[in-house]
Amino acid sequence: MKKKLSTIFAVAGLLMLSNACTDLKEQVLDETLTAKLSEEETVNGLLAPTYALLPNLFQHTTYFALQEISTDEAILPYRGGTDWGDNGIYIALHGHNTTSTDPNVNNTWNQLVQSISRCITAIEGLKTATSPNAALYTAEARGMRAYYNMVMLDLFGIAFVKDDPGTTSKIIRGDEAVKYIESELLAVEPTVQPKSVVGPGRLNQAAVWSLLARLNLNAAVYRNIYGATFDFKAEDMDKVIQYTDKVINSGQAKLSADYFAIFGNNNHTNEEIIFAVDQRAELNGHNRMAYFSISGDQFPLAEFPAANGTDGPAITSDFYQSWVQAYGAVDPSRDPRFYQQNMSIYTNAADTCVADADYKINRGILRGQQYGALRVNGAFLRCPDGKLKVGKLSYVTRNRADLPVSFSEMIDFTTAGSNYNTGYRVEKYEFSSKSNTGRNRGEADIVIARLADIYLMRAEAKLRKSNDAAGALADVNLVRASRTKTLAPPALTSMTLDLLFRERGFEFYWEMLRRPDMIRFGKYEGQWTEKTNTDVKKRIFPIPQTAIDGASNLPGYLKQNDGY
């Protein structure tokens, strides 16, 4: 089965992509090449498109932007007054002023509706397949359709119901959408394979349980998206506990002792990961999660002197201060999730020569003066022994050699707060060793679900159902204690919903969970750096105007979300 995984994604990498229609009618140009392929190759070719757009969906300017830049975890100003301006879309996104013409919203929508359409095509094509894997692949395609609908419900407040490719999708919302997605996941649960058989890059048994837990945890929000409060029903919380228990008791995942290994270039086999975007370099994965935040004068690879960052988003001072408040007089780097030093020059200024094989930039939240390989005229400087010359970086590539690459806590939309060096940066995912441009050939799988979230979802369900603070505390501390590669975070002594929200920020920062977390915990209408909008209608995004216009021949079919 693992060999077949490579076949499926090899097919996926060759697919031609097209624009999606609102009614989910997509022209498929004989992607299976049925006349030339064996039955097994044919069903592989039917399943491959259901996964093919996941890397696109999880790019920095699609799902990541909507889930993170709209929150207190990420902010992206006009760098230097010009870069990342993009007609103000990131400023609007952060301030909850996004419009229906926003290209990132439009691109995210298109990736989702195309993916749903491809799942429907696969389900239909597999009906007549004679391969022994047809039932399994049908379950995967059906489960992936449920997953994409779940993301659609979370972002846009709607889901699409469609089984016959020749009909128009039915649009559902609220409780009806929750029940539909749940029923689809439950329908495939008995058929999908354990993670040990298919790996985390395909929908597996533990992944289905994880999605069911996540769906039920957020069900109160989805049923009443604009509510002043949310009704976290006991039966929903029981389901969260039921499905998280299944994941934990199945042994299909194990907490990683090394926190940053979860996001490393070799994370394909990391046991903590349950479900992920399989985007190894040979599958044309992207490196955007690693390059997006760091400086354009940080060049992380000795082999590729053109591969650098882009001075994109940083964390807000508000989010950083949550770490400071948690650790008091102790620096937040005490927590192994906050920071990992990979270059000794940061603590020993004399270490200015580094062997190519040992040269790696630091990980986590990067503060202050940054060091790295020094470049002159596009080439790295070398020490007399041939090693890389490393030292203090400045903004040479920006023609600002006078400006050190020294990241400050302060960042906002003012001129001073928008300079290239403002804001603490995030290098959570490891920079791909194969990325010759810095943007391409990502090696690390992008996490969709991992075991730490299973424990913290169970902790939240215990708190919300019966205020079981002791049970919740045990789950949280188990996760904290697991990070033993270095000194694990100290055990917490109490647990409340506010403390759990803070802990989720520490554990999952920049993993595209922050927006739904903030909504669920009642924080999304709060105020933080450059964000004052308290409109509850901004909890979901506008349906793209292009989609509404495209459905204009069906009066009343696609209605814009309230507030847009």
UniProtKB/TrEMBL annotation:
<feature type="signal peptide">
    <location>
        <begin position="1"/>
        <end position="20"/>
    </location>
</feature>
<dbReference type="Pfam" id="PF07980">
    <property type="entry name" value="SusD_RagB"/>
</dbReference>
<keyword id="KW-0732">Signal</keyword>
<protein>
    <recommendedName>
        <fullName>RagB/SusD domain-containing protein</fullName>
    </recommendedName>
</protein>
<dbReference type="InterPro" id="IPR012944">
    <property type="entry name" value="SusD_RagB_dom"/>
</dbReference>
<dbReference type="InterPro" id="IPR011990">
    <property type="entry name" value="TPR-like_helical_dom_sf"/>
</dbReference>
<comment type="similarity">
    <text>Belongs to the SusD family.</text>
</comment>
<keyword id="KW-0998">Cell outer membrane</keyword>
<feature type="domain" description="RagB/SusD">
    <location>
        <begin position="286"/>
        <end position="533"/>
    </location>
</feature>
<keyword id="KW-0472">Membrane</keyword>
